[in-house]
Amino acid sequence: NSGNYFSLMDISQAAQDYLEEKTELWAGRDAGIFFLTYFNDRIMDIQMTQAEAQEMQLFSERCLLATSAPVGVPIVFGPIALRTKRAAYVELYRDAIERGIESGRFSSSILASDDILLTSNVLLDAVLFAMLPSLTGVLRGVIGAYLHNLGGINDNVDWTLHSDLGRAIMEAVRVFPPVFGVPYVLDGLRYSNLVGYSGYDRTVFGDDAWYYNVSRFETLDQYRQYVINWADRALPLEGKPETSHVCPGKSLSFNLLLGYLSALDIESWKEGPLGKPTVRDSGAGPLFWVYYKIQKMI
Fold it and tell me: Which residues neighbour 55 within 8 Å (Cβ) at sequence distance 6 or greater?
């Protein structure tokens, strides 16, 4: 039911308020703080301070590191400190879901306590392993593309138009796929969903498929038709509705990125003093992984 509680206009205004007095930003991490405070406030009715959101953002990064640990490390349960913190976040979401059901904010179909607990766990994992790394990764990709003028982006994008910002976002989703799925281990082998590699299919995207090129398509509809990173084109499971493979948070995620970038006014920022986005010849990969700062131009 999240669509009832957010709008692009509201996101843009909230982002403007968040960015108003900032003169230096981590390209991804500081945006993650905004995404968390907005999601928890508007969707979950949880009032989270920026300091608390920053703590949750760093917790997400630690959890992601834990999932990449060697096979012998207990990935699911992790170190005791992570498990204890995770349990506290599960309770936070569980309480919010129970309040939402009582107030009618959320569907009453989730009534059994075991179902609420399961939903709380799934929701937390979606925030930690999907929402935060996805949104901050795509954002770093777009900002990095701007700073490096990848594919002549600054000659082909009007940064004040939502339609152009949308294409810049979707090209970043295609070239710098942010989430390959949460990895898992089975019989001594690590598995990961590599649907993101579909964005490099030269039969669909041309010989320059590895390169960031915001002029590749003229409309967002073309991206929605060919880019499957948000699973738009995935086949449904047998006996399940077609929406079973579509990212349930896609609309919110896209609008969070669009609203934040609109409020950021990217052309008023430059590379900061710490770190910088680096680019391989293909332009694929490094912009997602690297952390760097940007500075407001005075």
Answer: none
Distance CA 105, CA 190 (A): 39
Q: In sequence order, which residues have a C-beta less than 8 Å from that of residue 158 and are 6 or more positions away?
A: 164
**Higher pLDDT among residues 185 and 107, named by residue:** 107
Tell which wins on pLDDT, 111 or 215.
215
Separation of alpha carbons 24 and 26, rounded Å: 7
Helical segments of 201-298, H only: 202-205, 220-226, 250-264, 286-289
Distance separating alpha carbons of residues 289 and 149, to the nearest angstrom: 18
> Secondary structure of 241-255 in the HEC alphabet?
CHHHHCCCCHHHHHH
- Report yes or no: 263 and 19 within 8 Å, Cβ to Cβ: yes
DSSP state of 218: S
Cβ atoms 233, 141 nearer than 8 A: no
The interaxial angle of helices 132-148 and 250-264, nearest 10 deg, is 40
Q: What is the pLDDT of residues 183-234, one digit of tens each?
A: 444 566 544 455 666 777 888 888 888 788 998 888 888 887 787 666 555 5
Q: Which two tokens stand for residue 148?
A: 């490096």
Asked whether 275 and 292 are in contact (CB, 8 A), the reply is yes
Torsion angle of C-alpha atoms 254, 260, 266, 268, degrees rounded to 10: 170
Beta strands (DSSP E) in 118-258 are 184-186, 189-191
Residue 107 buriedness (CB in 10 A; 0-12 / 13-18 / 19+)? exposed
CB 175 within 8 A of CB 135: no
pLDDT tens per residue across span 38-75: 999 999 999 999 999 999 999 998 887 776 655 445 44
Tokens for 53, please give them. Answer: 């959101």
Instruction: Give CA torsion, residues 291, 296, 214, 192, to 10 deg.
Output: 20
